[in-house]
């Protein structure tokens, strides 16, 4: 995968909790992943007594959380990450270096986060929204990402910095006008009601062993936006959990669960949900549905960049003073000019953005359809009906082959003498069952579909049954007899299928039981 993806987050730890699995997946798939964090989380509470001295020390906590973020990025394989206000693209666009600080929050009667009555002068939410958006626009113009990922409009649980990050990201993309709406796609975090319920379910197996407090009501806002991407991140769950655990002042990880400073237990999400937001249509960035999608599918919607037009490289971000600051390395002058142009007035940008095409359009004027990427779209497990139908046809062919070979092979045996007594070794049955197990594992791992697995077993058993009907064959010969070995061969495929189904759960079963 040759693609650039920009994640925009408000505080250290948000990137790991909400999108850690997707980040790890994209890195593993070969994409260039850039994480842009707006603040250093100076207003966060501190877990545990070991680092309790950082509570209330905004400067000290900020420096510590920089180190936590650097460790989390190493866990998911990201080498490009920095803080808004101090990136090279902003400097080249004429912005002075500055820090945006954590705005803080208060819990409302509705159980969600709200803006506090007062906040520091340097807080993200106290800053000019236009400046925040233009700084992000400078980063986007220089990086030229295929995909931007950030929060939904509700901020997940309502945190004002999350909401501001969403609004600024949408505004920044709209500043790029029609060209940006064609070149870049925007995914925003979504929280389907059923996923929220599973996340906070205290009856989940293993929750009682964590010592976490059950939630009286979910703090996450369940939304009704159409989900375009349900990214299965189970293969990257280890990296995600390690990244979360790196934020030790904010997150406690216990097995498949975690808790923030309030001690409320939540399940670590094995599926991360996103809406495809049409920022080119309006400033509200209405969501568009993309059934059964993944981030790889969304990346296919953005046109390929010609060779030599990819964004410049970012230096690894660590605590200030260790790596000389945060940002990208030297970029061509033309790139810097593009960033400066993107940082124009918001009025002109909004006017240009309003003329943008919808985010789903890949046939805008001047953009050739054949210019789109044609990357491999294979998935480890596709639950769509077309994939299931193809899997059933595959299972039919494999089942007939295994059924025929096994039926002719299962009666073979030899006799050995043990302690003076003859012992029959049914090696033919063992070979037939081994062939059956390999076939079941093959289709199960390939499709992760209970239906496909059962179809394979049924075809093999049906083939064996057919060979037990002498009237169907010339000479009325029995291939599958009434012997014990034949009875085992007749019924074992369905028994083995049941075992394999439990060992390799279907994709739909995963989504029904895990967030």
Report on the structure:
- The protein is of the alpha/beta class and 515 residues long.
- The model is unreliable at 314-326, 328-383 and 504-515 (pLDDT under 50).
- Helix 14 (427-447) runs antiparallel to helix 15.
- It has 17 helices and 15 strands.
- It has two domains: 4-281 and 288-301, LmbE-like (Rossmann fold, 3-Layer(aba) Sandwich), CATH 3.40.50.10320; 384-503, no CATH class.
- Helices cover 42% and strands 12% of the residues.
- The strands form four sheets. Strands 1, 2, 3, 6, 7, 8, 12 and 13 form an eight-stranded mixed β-sheet that branches.
- It comes from Brevibacterium jeotgali.
- Keywords: Membrane, Transmembrane, Transmembrane helix, Zinc.
**Multimeric state of these chains?**
single chain
CATH topology category name of the largest domain = Rossmann fold
Cα distance spanning the termini: 26 Å
Relevant CATH superfamily of the largest domain: LmbE-like
What fraction strand? 5-15%
The class by helix and strand makeup works out as alpha/beta
Largest sheet report: 8 strands, mixed
GO molecular function: hydrolase activity, acting on carbon-nitrogen (but not peptide) bonds, in linear amides
Pfam families: PIG-L
Transmembrane segments: 383-408, 414-438, 445-467, 487-504
Biased composition (Low complexity): 352-366
How would you describe this structure in keywords?
15 strands; 2 domains; single chain; disordered C terminus; 515 residues; Rossmann fold; three-stranded antiparallel β-sheet; eight-stranded mixed β-sheet; alpha/beta; N-acetylglucosaminyl deacetylase, LmbE family
